[in-house]
Records
---
Amino acid sequence: MSKKKLVFSGVQPTGNLHLGNYLGALKNFVYLQKEMECIYCVVDLHAITVFQNPKELKNNVLETVASFLATGLNPEKSVIFNQSSVSGHAELAWIFNCVSRIGWLNRMTQFKDKAGSDKEKASVGLYIYPNLMASDILLYKATHVPVGADQKQHLELSRDIAQKFNNDFNCKDFFPLPEPLIPKNVSRIMSLRDGTKKMSKSEESDYSRINLKDNADEISKKIKKAKSDSEQIPNNLKLLENKPEALNLINIYSEISKTSLEKVLNEMSGKEYSYLKTKLTDLLISEITPVGKEIAKLLRDKSHLMKILEKGREKANIIAEENLKNIREKVGLI
Ligand code: AMP
Ligand code: TRP
C-alpha cells in the first residue's frame, strides 16, 4: 500500500524566532510547501510545559504565525493553525502516554537539559512532552517532519510509539513511521558567543543570536562582536574542527550565499575573519531585515492572523477527527 506523503512540523510560540529556526526549520518548510501537502502548527501546548505569561503567550502565537507568513508560508497552500485549537492533539497524547514507556522518556536529552539540576520541580508536562509531539505528527499520519538536529531524538521516539501502537493493536502500517528531514550543514546553528552551544531563544545574551526582527544596525553589531578566530581562514574544513565559532560563521555564510563550503574556503582562505564578517553582514541584512519588517507589518492586523488560524483549524480538525475515529476504534474506546 503506497502511503500519501504528508509533511508536519511545529514551532513553539516562545517569542523571537532566530536565525537557527530560520535556517534549521522555516526555510525548509517553505521549500517543502512547493513539493508536498504540509501542515505547520504553532505548538502552544508544548510552550506551557514551562510557565508562560498568558498575555505574552497569546501575542507570541500571533507573532509565530506572522513569522511563518513573512518567511514565505502560504496559508492557501499549507495548513497553518495552533495546536490547542484542535483538541485531538491532547486526546491522542493521552493514548500515547499509555503506549510510550518510562524508560524511553528517561533517555530524552532535551528533558535533562531543560529540567536542569532540580528535576523534581520540572512539570510532568515537560517530561511527557515527546509523547505530545508524537501525537502532533501521528494525528495526521504525517510521513515527513522537517526539524533541526535537536529534535532528532524526539522523532525517533515518535517512530517507536507508532511502531508499538501498530504492534500492540495488531494494525500493521496503521501509523506511518515518520521520517525526519534535517538540513545538512545548518541543522544546528550555534550561538555567536559560544560555538559549543546551539543558538537559542533562551540564552541570556541577545548577542548570541540574530533575531528575525533585528534591524540592520543590530545585525551588524552582533556579527562584528561574534567570536571567530585570530588565525586566517584556512583552505581545509578539517582545520576548523576545533574552531566551532569560526565554522559556524562559515556555515551560515555558505547557506545564505548558496555556495558550497569548499567554494567558500577556496574563495576566502588566507583572509582575515573580518573579511568574511563584512560579507556575511551584508547578506544577512538583505535576507533577514525584509522578514523582520514583514513580521511587524503583519502584526498590525491581528484579526487577519486570527482568521488564518481559524481557517487552518477547520482544515486540520477534519483530518484529525477522521483519524481519531479510527484510533479510538483500534484502542476499543466507545
Ligand atoms: P523551537 O523554537 O524550539 O520550537 O524550534 C523550532 C524549529 O527550529 C525546530 O525544528 C528546531 O529543531 C529548529 N531549531 C531551533 N534552534 C535551532 C538551531 N540553533 N539550529 C538549527 N535549528 C534550530
Ligand atoms: N519539539 C519541537 C521543538 O521544540 C516542536 C514540535 C512540537 C514539533 N511538535 C512537533 C516539531 C511536531 C515537529 C513535529 O522545536
---
Amino acid sequence: MHVLETQAKAPGKVNLYLAVGNPREDGYHPLATLFSSVNIYETVTARDAQELGITLSLNIVPDSLVDQQHRAGEFDPAEVPLNEKNLAYRAAVAMVQARGLTVNDLNLHLHIDKAVPVAGGMAGGSADAAAALLAVDQYLYEKRLTERTLGLEELLALAAPLGADVPFVVRAAFPLGGLAVGEGTGTELSIVELPEDMIPLDIVLVAASEGLSTPQVFSELDEGRTAGRYAEAGELQVPSGLLHALTQTETPIARLHEVGRQLRNDLQAPAVTLAPELETILTMDNESIVEAFVSGSGPTVAILVEDAPAADELAAALRRRGRHAVATQTPAAS
Ligand code: C5P
C-alpha cells in the first residue's frame, strides 16, 4: 500500500531587538522586536499511520545543540510530551479543525526532527508548531481531504493563537520571510525586505544546560522594574538605524559593529538574574567577537562574530570547553 508522506521545516530565531512594555490586563506584554531566523530547522513529517487520530514521535538531529545537550545528559527526549500538550500536536489539531475535519477522521503520524532547543529562547516549540501546520496542510490536500492548501494569511491566523512566536516562524518557513519586525505581542509582523546581496550575520549559538521558563523571565522583568532594578519600559519601536545597518551591504565590518551597537534585549537582564552563569558567556573575550546577547527570553546566547571561519573556530573552541555551541547565520539563507 502507498504510504502518503509530506514534510515541512521551520527555522528557529533570535531577536536582534526586543523592547518590552508593561504587562496588559491579560498578562501579555506589548513589545517591539526584530525577529531574525537562524539556519537551524525543525522538520515535521506527516504520514499515514495505523492508529486512529494523531500520534507523535521525536528524533534528535545529530550534532545539533539539542544533540549536544542530550549527550551531556541535560536533555531527555522522554520528557517531551508526545501528546495533546505538544505544540505540534495542537497545531495539527488547529489545522484539521479549520478544514472542517476532526482528529478521528485521520490516521496521522507526526514525526519531529528536533534541532532547536526546548525552552531556549529560540522558538523551538513554535517552529515545531509552524512545521506541523505546513506539513499537515499539505498532507490533508494530498490525501484529498481538502481541495486546496491554505494561503499565507490563513496560516498566520491559525498560528497566532498557538503562541506569540508562531506567526514569525511560519513566515520564516517561506522564502524571504526571515527578518521581520514584530509588534503587539509579537504576532503583528512587518517583513523587512532584504537586498539580494545581503550578507547574513555570522553567529555562534551557545545553549545552556537548563532551559528558562518564558513567563518567569517576563515576571522577573516586571518585578525588577517595579523595584527599580531594571530600566523602565522605553519606546516600543525597532530603530530604523538598526534596520538600515542590517540591510546595507557596502562596508561589512563597519556594518557589523553598527549592528552590534544597536542590539537590545529587555529580557536579557532578567534572564541573567535567573541564570547567572550566562554572564560568563556574555562577557567572554575573543578578538573575533563583535557582541554577545541573550536570544529572546534565553537562556541561549548568540555571539555575533566577524565572519564564518571565526564562527566555526569559536564554536569548536567552546565545545572543547564542554559548552554546547554551533556556528550558524542569521537571517537564514532562503
Ligand atoms: O505566546 P507564548 O505561549 O509563546 O508565550 C509564553 C509566555 O510568555 C506567555 O504565557 C506570557 O507569560 C509570556 N509572554 C508575554 N508577552 C508576550 C509574549 C509572551 O508576557 N508578548
---
Amino acid sequence: MGKAHFGLIGLGVMGENLVLNAERNGYSSVVYNRTYAKTEEFLAGRGAGKDIVGAATLQDFVGALERPRRILMMVKAGQPVDDTIDAISPFLEEGDLLIDGGNSLYADTDRRVAELERKSFGYIGMGVSGGAKGALEGPSMMPGGTKAAYDAIEPLVRKMAAQVSDGPCVTYIGPGGAGHFVKTVHNGIEYAIEQILAEAYDLMKRIAGMNGDQMADVLAGWNETEELASFLVEITEVCLRTKDPETGADLVEAIVDAAGQKGTGLWTVVSALEMGVPVPTIYAALNARVLSSLRPERLAAGALLPAPPAHSFSLGEPADGMAPLRDACIAACIVSYGQGMALLQEASKLHDYNLNFSAIGQIWKGGCIIRARLLQRIQNAYSANPTLANLVLDPWFAEQINRRLPGLRQVVAGAALAGIPVPCLSSTLDYIDSYRSGRLPQNLVQAMRDCFGSHTYERTDKSGSFHTEWLD
Ligand code: 3PG
C-alpha cells in the first residue's frame, strides 16, 4: 500500500467523523490514538472497509504519510496540544503540516504557529463547527496560520467542508490564531442565541402557559422566516417536542437547569473586555450560564427574595407566531451577530488579521452551529461595506431593528414586571438604546471621576482638558 494522504491524531467523536469525512472525499488516511485499543476498535467498527489504517506509535504514524504530511490533531485544547506537538515533532520533516482542529485559545495558536514555523513546519489553527454530524457530513471550517500552510491543505478542507450555493464553508481566515479567534467568537454568538431561545421558552411556558408541543409549533413557524430560520431554532423545536421515554412528559422539564461551558464563551467576553468592544448580549448569555450553576444559592435566595405579584402581559398569539416575542428574538439575534462581528473588526485591526467579514458570513452559512438564513444578509452587508462598524448600521439591519424594537420593549418590560429574568433580551434593549443615543449620562460619571480623583474631563463647548475643585 502507498503512503496515506491524511493523518488524524485523536479518535474522539469529532476526530472519527473528520477522518471518515476525509476518506469519503478521496483521502486515504492513517489514524493514531494515545490508546491503541481505541484505534483497533475504530478500525474494526466505523473505520472497517475504508481506506484507513492505524498506527500504534507516532513514528509509524508519521512514516505512513506521504510528504508534505497533513496531520490533523483532534485532542483536548490546552496542554494536550503542546504535548502532542512535542511528541510528534522529532519525526516531522521540513514542510510537514500540523492542524489543530480543537477549540484552542487563540493566543496559544499564535505561539504555536510561530514556534512551528521556526522549525520549518506548517501550523494551522482551525476552528471546526458543526458538532459530530457536521464533522462527518461537512462542517464549517475556520483555518488560520500562514497562507502557505493553508494553501497546502486547501484542496482537502474545501472537499471536507459543508457546501452552500456559493461554495464550500471554508476559507483562509488570517495569520496566527485568527482561525481560532473567529471560532471563539462564533461560539460566543452561539451562547447568545441559545440563551435568547431559552428566554423565549421560559416566557412562553410561564406567561403563556404553553407546553412543549405548543412551543415547538411556534418555533417551527419561526424557522420558516428569513430572520430566524436557523439550525439552533430547528434543534430547539426538536428539544421542546421530545418526550421523556420514562414518563411521556416533555423531556426538557426533567433536565437540571444549570448550564456549563468549555471556555470559548468566556474567551469571547474576556477578549471583548480587553479590546474595549461592548458585547453585552453575549456577556449576558455567559453570565446566565454561570448564575444558573449556582443552584443551591438560587434556591436559598428564592426563599428570602420572593417574586413580585403575578403579572400577565401579551406575548402574542401562536397563530401570529407570538409576534412580539418573535420580534424580540429577531432583534436579539441580529444584535448578537452584530456584537460578534464588531469584536472581529477590532481584533482584525489589533492583530493584523485582515479578516474578510463577507467571507466569514459565507462560511458560517452552512455546516456550523450558528448557520442561519440571516447570514446571507450579513454577507451582503459586509460585501457592500467591508469596514462596517456595526451590523445595525447596515440599512437592511437598521430597518429590521426599528421594526422589531416595539416587540422587544413590550417583552422586556413585561418580563421585568413579572420578575422573569431575560438577560439577553434586556441587554439587547439596553445596548440598542445606548448605541443609538447621542447623549449618555457618562458626563456625570466624568464629573464624579474628576471630583474624587482629579481625572479631568472634556467640555461640550470648548476643547481641552478641565478640572474643577468640586468639594471646596
Ligand atoms: C463546542 O465548540 O464544543 C460547543 O459548540 C460549545 O461548547 P460549550 O457550550 O460547552 O462551551
